[in-house]
């Protein structure tokens, strides 16, 4: 019998899976050898156990227009990879009603890092989107806060355009094979034996009609030579991490490949290589904005530039501002933001502020959430949040800081108090004093 990559991982990691269902998991969290919790702004939990809660990725809209309804996922276990049969609840916390949990649906298409792509659509607070599985397909659910009804679109969504009219989809089956923890388990990739298929890639999806169009294929980008002139035709290509520009005219995608992958066992060796591309939302006017091979976390800085963690040719690792369709590169805050993190800009009128975090410190195992004021070069730590060492690998709990629409609140995910929960940090005083 053939054992899938994920099934193999679950069997090999049965100890971790057992921890999740026993008191040993709680003990491993409690005795994680972390430093103390320290917060420097008002901070409170808005979710609570026994269920675990988290939002997921840092570049998605979690707050409604009133900044009082905060989206979250809910799950009953920790410490192992999800399977295609594991279902989570999706809903929101009503912070104006004693943090009441309001469920709106469920999902069987999710991962620990990005959840099920749960997010608000557009600016009016009338629709919420997330991914799910229906039969032999991954789909998208769209919930109306007015009618309380849910409709289904036949393609999963990776990112939503700021104008709320369309989303971009990627092949989560392929991502699951080549980047465990970011795709969805449960459905086989029909292109598992193909290195750069021409029918897999990025689709533009109309969020009203559900109509989808393949706008960029893996075969398309595999034909674009890398800086060494090689097209790496013998590598295994995939897309990850999409984000549409604020004006909804262009998008970013990370084109990645793995040199070695066995489609029979779904096992790979070594790491992946990355380059960042931008393109118009119809897939045209493509540009390799970062060919370095090291692109990591990023965010649009206006409509014409991208701020990212990378290592441009001849430069050190750090955050840089790269201008789209040019070779302009500018370092950003490298003395105050020296390590990789999940970076975003606060909304107007605070768009000169970067919201960021760190991975767990090696000595104290704490994650730091902070604000960095670009014009002045000042950094303000918001808190140091212990991350027990049981939270590592695929089921780690990054803080992934997300801003409210007015910039005055920050939501994070953190496991520092006995489980994965969502916390709110109030940064209004910092912005008032130093903005």
Automatic annotation (TrEMBL):
Signal peptide location in the record?
1-26
Please provide the record's keywords in A-Z order.
Signal
Cross-referenced InterPro entries: TAT_signal, WD40/YVTN_repeat-like_dom_sf
Look up keyword Signal and say if it applies. Answer: yes
Q: Gene3D superfamilies attached here? A: YVTN repeat-like/Quinoprotein amine dehydrogenase (2.130.10.10)
User: Keyword Signal: yes or no?
Assistant: yes
Residues in a coiled coil are: none
Q: What is this protein called?
A: Secreted protein
The organism encoding this protein is Roseiconus lacunae
Lineage here is: Bacteria, Pseudomonadati, Planctomycetota, Planctomycetia, Pirellulales
